Write the structure tokens for this entry.
Amino acid sequence: MRVLAVEDEVILLGQLTNRIREALPESEIVSFDNADDALDALAQEVVDIAFLDIAIGHMTGVELAKRIKAVCPHCDIVFCTGYSEYAPQAFELGASDYLMKPVTPEKIGHALSQLRHTSINKDTKQGLYIRCFGDFEVFYDGEPVDTFTKRSKELLAYLVNKEGILCPTSEICNIIFRDSSDSYLRVAKKDLKAILRDIGKGDVLVSGWGVLGINRKEVRCDYFDYLDGKPGALNLYKGAYMSQYEWARGKVVK
């Protein structure tokens, strides 16, 4: 499935793209901050769903939607805007939904349930998905995992940051717990193992004598997709990476 996102404010574009990625982790997402680049991309390949802002420079989202429909008549159009007055025009055009900002995961979910042409395979929402760009967050079956303790979540973040490489526990203690003792690490590791086991992903965590890591093959992650050069993933990184963690600040993702 190929999804288009158009929003002229770069920060909001990144947020919208992340919301779509959370709901449709297996989709290819192409995002642009202007209508012209979006139309150029459509000339190369059609899209199944388009999430459009209304105010996007010299062309309104409604005008862009008409251009998209001319090329992709079965594309589902979802407007994401702060302007309610365009709703009648949007639905006359055949929009699937009209979302008022801020765009939340719940609103994206509602929009996907209203699609007129595109069938969403529920399997695309299943499984573990980790977001590193922006704040570090973990999702399972499209829903945030909220059972982490502060330290168990940070432990998982650090192991994801290591990209599957086994990390010495002494390093983890020094970086996360700022303590040479491993007592805090043992508690965080126990909590993390229990959480992953409860969602059926006990194979994610890998441990050995004095080392700890993750099985990268068991994890879907925007950072890993970016490193692998997967279509759509290159548009996800806007400069922020695991922004709530001090040890991640200053990292430049290449």
